[in-house]
């Protein structure tokens, strides 16, 4: 028996959706661990962070952080052409957000690396996805 006999073929939609799940959980846990940094929550509560936290800023962050959530579902249900396009665009936007909004804390760099790798895998798989009949 060779290795090919043991390889399981995963549907592309399932693969993309699963990668988005990894991205989403990585984002959540990076943020949760950030709250454990001594003084971090106090700065937020006191309003003494490096940036002014406004309702508009929180809305922008909410929209950007929410991208992986619908992509988990959309990767499974969208038709081929729209699916490829949505995955590539959503990944590019999210990569920019992860890198631009990042910090130099080791836990964040770790999770951001996982997120970025997964999103590059999403882009690669969506780009190389063989043509499907819609």
Automatic annotation (TrEMBL):
Keyword terms, alphabetized: Membrane, Transmembrane, Transmembrane helix
Highest taxon of the lineage: Bacteria
Stored InterPro entries: DUF6326
Transmembrane segments: 16-37, 57-78, 85-102, 108-127
Matching Pfam families: DUF6326 (PF19851)
Keyword Transmembrane helix listed: yes
The protein's name: Uncharacterized protein
